[in-house]
Structure formats: C-alpha cells, structure tokens
Design goal:
Number of helices: 10
CATH architecture of one domain: Up-down Bundle
Radius of gyration: 39 Å
Helix content: 55-70%
Largest sheet: none
Number of strands: 0
Length: 255
C-alpha cells in the first residue's frame, strides 16, 4: 500500500466504496433473478421491497461518493507490473475506461434531463404539484362548506333524495316537523287535563314521556340529514328506569 501513496484512512474510503458497489450489484442481481426466473411473478409487496432496498443502496453509495469526491477525483488507476493483463484484458480495459459505455451514457443523459425538468434536486417539480393540489383542495373545501352552511344545513332531505323525489324516500317519517310538534302539544295538554289535576306526580310522567318522544324524533330527524351524534340532553340508559329525561345538570319534574 505504500506504493499507492495513500493513507490508511484513504484506503478505508476506497474499501467502503467497493463494499457499497458490491451491495448495489448484489441487490440488482437478486431483483433480476426474482423477476426472470419466478413463475408466476413475485407478489407486488416483494417487488416493492426489492426496489426499496435498491434505492436505499444507491442513495447510500451516491451520498458516500459525494462526501469523498475530492479524494476519488485525484486518485488515478494504474495496473501493477505483475497484473495478468493478457489473461484479463477485458477487466483491465473496463477498469481503465475514462468514459461510461454508450448505453450507460444514454441513461445518464436521460437522468440529467429528467432532473432538469423536475428542478434543481429533482424534487422541486413534485413539491410544486403537491402545493397546487393542496391549494385546490382548500379552495374546494371552503366553497363546499360555505354552500352547505347556506343551503343544506336545515334541509331534511339530501340532494340525491330530492332529485329522486321525496315521496319515494323511506325514512320512517311521514309527517312534517311542525305537524309532529302540534300533535305533541295537544297530547301534552290532554295529559295535563286528564291526569295532572288528580295526581301531581303523573304530570311529571307525562312530561317525561313527551320529552323522550321529542328526543327520539330529533334523533330520527338528525339521522336523515346525516347527523348521527346523540343529543347531549338525552339520557337514554336512565330513561329506561326513571321517569323523565335529564337536561344538563338539572332534572325535569317527576324525576
């Protein structure tokens, strides 16, 4: 090694380059064998894993070469006098070649052209497209949410249901909300007249049943317009055992 005029650290750099090149060649050869000799082709997950390994090895190699570019550029390759040049002439010519092969040069030119179109580091174009996509999504969402707030918030039926005809919609609701509220008020008045005078406790029972009915109606109405959360004042589990419905922290009469 003394004849090479290289320090031990520089020798380690060359050895690291050799090992990384061997990893790239090995991963490429394995991927080629999997694709060519496998019948049927390997699953998509296996192909994706192989390409990921190849990309990682290439990225590691290019990063290492870029970090040690100064050393690699000043090193000149000369065969020793005892190298069997006649027996291994092809290897010797390949090692001493200063320019890439024509096929490799074509691939390099295509890669440079693609990087130039995408941007300086090859990612600028992708970032521009992603920013444009997010901008479009934000503008569309703002417009659509505004339209929903202005036109569709209080609609009982969806646009699709109105297009097909609301008479064909099967929701279990056959009466309008106003008619249902009027009937609820009439039933409440009848309950007060028939039971409230005789027994004050029964008034709470009627009121609790009425509130439970209204809560069920609101839940059904909300499900029609796509609101599936339960009203915060509907205590469904307690309603089975107790009279009345809890609202907030207070309780209705008859509880």
């Amino acid at each position: 090694m003394a004849s090479l005029n290289l320090s031990p650290d520089e020798i380690k750099v060359l050895e690291s380059v050799r090992q990384r090149l061997a990893q790239v060649v090995s991963s490429l050869q394995k991927f080629k064998d999997d694709v060519v000799h496998s019948q049927p082709l390997p699953p998509a997950s296996s192909i994706q894993a192989s390409t990921t390994i190849i990309q990682q090895n290439l990225r590691t190699l290019t990063s290492f070469v870029a970090e040690n570019a100064t050393l690699l550029e000043r090193i000149a390759l000369h065969p020793s006098t005892n190298f069997p040049g006649r027996q291994h002439e092809a290897i010797l010519l390949q090692l001493l070649r200063k320019k890439p092969e024509p096929s490799v040069e074509t691939l390099l030119d295509e890669g440079r052209e693609t990087a130039r179109k995408l941007g300086g580091d090859g990612n600028a174009g992708a970032w521009k497209a992603q920013r444009a996509l997010w901008k479009w999504a934000r503008e569309y969402c703002d417009e659509r949410i505004g339209q929903y707030a202005r036109e569709e918030t209080l609609q009982v039926y969806t646009a699709e249901e109105r297009a097909m005809g609301i008479e064909n919609v099967r929701t279990g609701l056959r009466k309008s909300m106003d008619e249902e509220e009027d009937e609820d008020e009439d039933e409440d008045e009848e309950g007060d007249e028939g039971n409230g005078v005789k027994d004050g406790g029964k008034t709470g029972v009627a009121g609790g049943d009425e509130l439970a009915k209204m809560a069920r109606f609101k839940l059904a109405r909300n499900s029609v317009v796509g609101r599936f959360e339960m009203p915060p004042n509907a205590d469904w589990e307690a309603k089975r055992k107790m009279v009345g419905v809890g609202v907030g922290v207070g309780k209705f009469p008859g509880r």
